[in-house]
């Protein structure tokens, strides 16, 4: 493959990780749907296990179709390499397992995706890992949570579902000073809009179930560490725990990924129009979208992101009942969890994605009872707005 180093995102996203088929020259990556790979003799097998010879052994350890996808995202994020996993939560649990020991403490964004918090507080705590979930949009809260045993800072920006931002550069400076590993969940932005490793984070990861795949038909995740040391450490844990992606899953995601920039461009243009429309609507209490001047971190979003994204949160006047009525009446906007698909998805976090978070913790994290989250898709924006307007009619 020609050198992609100085190419633009639009070129990289289409070409990175391609050219896998040396035998027939297939332009699309073939699906190597095999669990294992044949050795020419026992010595070759032994050399591969010892890491003395390049080549594949067994699909949980590595596979050419998965490797093509891993290389693509690693190039887009500017990292050492990609580690594809079976889901976004497999990425979270692999990272917790790889980076934290019994007796360690982690600081994280209070309004992270519910289960990212849940498995730390309910499961990893059983192995003696401590955690503090704070509003990381203010670095003072991170400073106040710091302990002698703090080893990692785990942030999600923009956060799910509050759309509150955390300053990645400030966190990276803080992490360096206190010898912490900074991990960024970049799911809401995608590498097209935000590249945390360029802002000195140590590890970035995604639920690729969302915009990276973009077609609402695959669950998956990927981790991209910035250095070889971290890459080897995390990959070893991923392989050992069996969190690997499947070749067919990798092939589908690679296909979706090629249009990432096109889809995100269109979806965020739509999101800007929808957010401005919601802000002017007198049935709406408040709207949070980084592209609105009223977003408290509008300037930060301009500094650390290349666009404002496709995620909006807002509250319908009249509390939970009004919100429920509104959500019962949407038609084109699909009432479903998940996000980043080509179609518009809308949901109610307090009753759905964050229902497992205790109410007082949820409210402290800014996830109010009536908050509605919309992932704006690529449909005709006037038709999205007409659907929202119709659903609000009887509220
Ligand atoms: N990180 C973020 C920011 C997410 O939004 C999700 C899933 C995950 C990690 C976990 O990824 P998964 O295992 O589902 O691939 N978020 C979802 C959501 O907001 N609605 O449904 C899933």
Describe this structure in words.
The longest helix is centred in the last third of the chain and has 21 residues, at 260-280. Helix 5 links the parallel strand 2 and strand 3. This protein has helices at residues 9-15, 42-49, 64-77, 88-99, 114-123, 139-145, 168-177, 190-193, 228-241, 247-257, 260-280, 298-304, 319-329, 359-364, 381-392; strands at 83-85, 105-109, 130-134, 150-156, 181-185, 203-207, 221-225, 284-288, 311-316, 334-335, 345-347, 371-375. The protein has 395 residues and is of the alpha/beta class. The strands form 2 sheets. The protein has a 7-stranded mixed β-sheet, with helices on both faces. The structure holds ligand LCS.
Offer a concise description of the structure.
Helices cover 39% and strands 14% of the residues.
């Amino acid at each position: 493959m020609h050198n992609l180093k100085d190419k633009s995102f639009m070129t990289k996203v289409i070409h990175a990780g391609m050219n896998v088929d040396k035998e027939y020259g297939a332009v699309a990556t073939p699906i190597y749907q095999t669990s294992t790979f044949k050795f020419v003799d026992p010595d070759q097998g032994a050399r591969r296990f010892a890491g003395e010879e390049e080549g594949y052994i067994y699909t949980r350890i590595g596979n050419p179709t998965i490797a093509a996808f891993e290389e693509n995202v690693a190039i887009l994020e500017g990292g050492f390499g990609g580690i594809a996993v079976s889901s976004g939560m497999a990425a979270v649990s692999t990272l917790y397992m790889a980076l934290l020991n019994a007796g360690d403490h982690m600081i994280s964004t209070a309004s992270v995706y519910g289960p990212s918090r849940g498995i730390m507080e309910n499961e990893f705590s059983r192995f003696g890992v401590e955690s503090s979930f704070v509003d990381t949009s203010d670095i003072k809260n991170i400073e106040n949570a710091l302990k002698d045993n703090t080893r990692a800072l785990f942030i999600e920006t923009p956060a799910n579902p509050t759309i509150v931002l955390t300053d990645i550069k400030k966190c990276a400076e803080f992490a360096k000073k206190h010898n912490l590993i900074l991990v960024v969940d970049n799911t809401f932005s995608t590498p097209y809009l935000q590249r945390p490793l360029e802002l000195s984070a140590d590890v970035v990861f995604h639920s690729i179930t969302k915009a990276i795949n973009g077609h609402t038909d695959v669950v998956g995740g990927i981790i991209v560490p910035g250095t070889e040391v971290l890459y080897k450490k995390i990959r070893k844990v991923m392989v050992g725990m069996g969190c690997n992606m499947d070749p067919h899953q990798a092939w589908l995601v690679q296909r979706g990924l090629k249009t990432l920039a096109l889809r995100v461009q269109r979806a965020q243009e739509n999101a800007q129009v929808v957010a401005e429309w919601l802000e002017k609507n007198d049935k709406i209490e408040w709207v949070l979208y980084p592209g609105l001047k009223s977003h408290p971190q509008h300037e930060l979003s301009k500094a650390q992101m290349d666009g404002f994204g496709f995620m909006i949160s807002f509250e319908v006047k009249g509390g939970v009942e009004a919100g429920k009525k509104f959500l019962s009446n949407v038609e084109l906007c699909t009432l479903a969890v998940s996000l980043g698909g080509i179609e518009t998805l809308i949901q109610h976090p307090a009753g759905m994605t964050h229902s497992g978070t205790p109410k007082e913790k949820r409210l402290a994290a800014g996830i109010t009872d009536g908050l509605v989250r919309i992932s704006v898709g690529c449909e005709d924006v006037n038709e999205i707005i007409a659907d929202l307007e119709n659903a609000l009619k009887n509220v």
